[in-house]
Design a protein that fits this description.
Blueprint: E1 10-15, H1 19-29, E2 33-38, H2 41-44, E3 54-57, H3 62-76, E4 82-86, H4 94-104, E5 109-111, E6 123-125, E7 140-144, H5 150-159, E8 163-169, H6 172-179, E9 188-191, H7 200-209, E10 213-217, H8 222-234, E11 237-241, H9 256-278
Helix pairs in contact: 3-4
Length: 279
Amino acid sequence: MDIREKCQPHLWLLTGTGEGHVFAKSLLKDGWKITVSVVSSRASIPYEKLNLEQILIGALIGEEEIRSVILNARNNQDGFFCVIDLTHPFAKEITPTISKVCKELEQPFIRYERQLNNISNAFLINNLSDLGNYNLRNKSILLALGVRHLEEALIVVRGLGANSYARILANPESIKKTLSSSILKTNLAILNPLTSNDGEIEKALIRKWNINGVLCRQSGGKTERLWQRVCSVMDIDLFLLKRPAKLQYINSIDSYENLVKRLKSISMEKIVSKNHAST
C-alpha cells in the first residue's frame, strides 16, 4: 500500500542530530513533503540543497510556539501527517513538550532514539559528581561534552585536583558560552567536526596536552564512537555521561526502517478512523 495516495504527505521534522539530514533526504526520495526545524542558521546549512517545503530556524520556546506551527500548517495547508522528533538525546525538555502538544492536538507523533553504542572500553557515569569515584588528582582531563555541561564539569574536575581542557564545536553560540566560562583560553580547542572525522585532530590534542582521560556524553552518535575509538588507540580513559532515560510514555523508534513502518501504521489508523466516522 502506498500511504501517499491516502493522505497529505507532509511531515514536520524537528532535528538536532546528524540523522535529521539523512532521514529528510530519504523521506524526500520516498515522496514525502518535508518541513524541517533547526536551532540555528548554521544547523540549516546541510538542508539548504534539499527540496524542502520550509526550513524553520530557531529554538522552539514552549508549548505555544509548537502549537502555533502545527495549527498554522492546518490552517494554510492540510496539516502535518506526522511530527517526527529527531532532537538530541540530551535535549531533555523539548521531547516531552512536543509530545504533550501533539497529544492535545491529536497530532501523530514519532520520537527517534539512537541505539546505544557498546561501552566496553568506557566508564559510564550517571552524573558528573560520579567522577569523584575515580582518582583524577593531577590527571589531565579533556572535556568534550558540549557547552551546556561545561561549567559544571570544570568545577567538578578541578575540585578533584585534575587539570581541565575542553574541545568545543566551531559555532558562534558554543564559542560565546565557552568564552564566558572559567576555562583557561590556553586550554581550549575549537574544532569543526566536519574536518575531524578521522580522529587525527583529537589524537593531536591528546598528545599536545598529555591527556589522561576524556569526558563526553553517551549520545549514541558519531562523536561518541569517535572518542571510543580514539581513547582505545591512545590507551587513555573514557568517561561517558549517561544518556537521559527514555520517557516511558513515548514509544520511540530507532531506525529509518522502523520509522517507515510506524508511518504506515499511522496511515492505517487514519483510514480505519475515517471509515468509522463515515458509517
